[in-house]
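quick one, 270 residues, struct below
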Amino acid sequence: MSFNHIVFIVMDSCRYDSFTAAKTPNIDRLGQAERRYSYASWTAPSHHAFAMGMLPHSSPKDVFASEVYKDEYAQWRHRTGNTEIAFKEFLPDLSLPKVLRKIGYRTVAKVSMPVLNKNTLISRDFDDYKLMKHHNDFAGMIEEMEFPDEPHYYFLNLGETHYPYMLSGADLPHISGLHGALKSMDTTPATSGKQGFDPGQMEMLRLQQIKCVEYVDSQIGKLMELTPPNTHFIVTADHGELFGEDGYFGHGPIMHEKCFEVPFVEGRLG
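---
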């Protein structure tokens, strides 16, 4: 049986309305973009959900959560082209890459965020797992991809849409505490209290994220030229982002709708 290749693209931190404001002619070829909601408001826990096979949800009413999860797992039959995948295949590990490996996929992850490095549990069931050397290297990921007869599952975490949204060294605002946060965690004293955000800077950053979405779309167009017809694309985000709304910036320990709203598009080229 011949299964579909799967390319799962996560635009890190891309909020829904940034995506819809961008021109995305290549992603549009896959289908209509939906507004969905992330299971978490920052990168690591959202990616744990992806590793389980759970994608951003639509927040349906009048339904038990278990029914939503059941339907989500059933979608992998369509995505892979294997009509025999059942929920029991995911047990007890609840690991999508492990299930795909069992049915003959080579599973490959390329990630941009250090919080997703290969020592994390997220990497466990991939055949090949790589943290890219540079924050913005979607183009480098594409150069390393191939699509032989063996079905491949590519999981790509993109840093281009993540703060500081740098594509060409633009002179954008530097928000204290977010550059190299993990590296300075033990040496920089914790701060508290209100910081306040300059509305002009926030708007500049919002517009830059939109430009980054358009850049990602251009690279997806190049990737599409390499993929065979039996390639199923998923394009989404792990969480949203705040640009000063209600006194918030960024994402993480924030309960705000814009932190959970994400775009979702999937399909195959016609």
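The longest helix spans residues 199-226.
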